[in-house]
Amino acid sequence: MKLTFKNDFNIKRTLKNKIDWLFLKSMQGSVLLEKNNRIGRILFFHPKGNSLPSSLLQNLVKAFETAEDDPDIGVIILESEGNAFCAGASLTELKGVKTLEEGTAFFMGFADLLNTIRKMSKFVLASVHGKVVGGGVGLVSACDYAFATDTASLKLSELSIGLGPYVIEPAVSRKIGSTAFAQLSLDSTHWKSAQWGLQKGLYAEYVADREALDRTVNENAERWADYAPEACRELRKLHWKDTQNWESLLPENAKITAQLALSDFTQNKIKSL
Q1: Does residue 11 carry a pLDDT above 50?
Q2: Percent of the chain scored above 70 by pLDDT?
Q3: What class has domain 15-272?
Q4: Banded pLDDT at 26 (limits 50, 70, 90)
Q5: Residue 32 has what pLDDT?
Q6: Dmax of the chain from CA atoms?
């Protein structure tokens, strides 16, 4: 299938072999939503380790919203291309932040994405291979069930550059607990293994390699896609209870992060990377 593009991103819908596609492309990466047999698959890519600039964050929100609104999708798989799952916030974009408004708008991209996933009625499975950094850890934490290979080591590196994982903290702490979050956020220069992530609850299942990962994720998605939508909606509400305050909390944390991003310490650290 050939996809064409217009302007910053293009949405093209087509049908081939009973597969629907939604493709969002910008100058900084791409997001693909594929639909097949009641399974929606969101695949994102950025040439810099699948880092997340504003445009990619916005397109991920659009993909999740499209999947949520499609009655023919019963479950969603989130995965990325390349050798890393996600490098977190785009440092290239952060280098260009000059005002509090610009910084807040950038970190609001993470707040909007987490809140979009939080409010969905459909379960989201994460297929994780390769390293997971910063905002990527928050993204995995927001998913309902994560499968990972031994390459899925993780790190919250924010403190090492004068920031903190404030926007994603509610999602990460909800998933692994406050003690594990404290360990992960304070040890900002060292990697935690995929086994550590499994033990703390970030990952629900651990598989041997990429081939086994794809097979296991697909098998589970096929089973979950047959669950009654109403039952999934109500169960997901139960899983995500007491998170309504995220609507105000995450934007507040985005502003705090933006203020720190403008400090001389952080700007010098980012420029040196």
Answers
A1: no
A2: 90
A3: alpha beta
A4: low
A5: 95
A6: 54
Backbone angles phi, psi at 28, to 5 degrees: -125, 65
Neighbours of 260 (CB within 10 A): 18
Determine how β-strand 15-16 pairs with β-strand 19-26.
Answer: antiparallel
Residue among 82, 79, 87 nearest 33 (CA): 79
pLDDT at 8 > cutoff 50: no
Q: Output the CA torsion sign for 152, 79, 178, 103.
A: positive
Mean pLDDT for 127-131 is 98
The answer to whether residue 10 scores a pLDDT higher than 60 is no
Q: Is the confidence at residue 25, as pLDDT, over 90?
A: no
Residues in the chain: 273
Cβ of 138: how many Cβ atoms within 10 Å?
A: 26
Mean per-residue pLDDT for 233-245?
97
Q: What is the dihedral of CA 233, 126, 203, 52, to 10 degrees?
A: -120
Q: Other CB atoms closer than 10 Å to residue 215's CB: what's the count?
A: 11
121 closest CA partner among 234, 244, 241, 34: 234
3-state secondary structure the chain: CCCCCCCCCCCCCCEECCEEEEEEEECCEEEEEEEECCEEEEEEECCCCCCECHHHHHHHHHHHHHHHHCCCCCEEEEEECCCCCECCECHHHHHCCCCHHHHHHHHHHHHHHHHHHHCCCCEEEEEECCCEECHHHHHHHHCCEEEECCCCCEECCHHHHCCCCCCCHHHHHHHHCHHHHHHHHHCCCCCECHHHHHHHCCCCEECCCHHHHHHHHHHHHHHHCCCCHHHHHHHHHHHCCCCCCHHHHHHHHHHHHHHHHCCHHHHHHHHHC
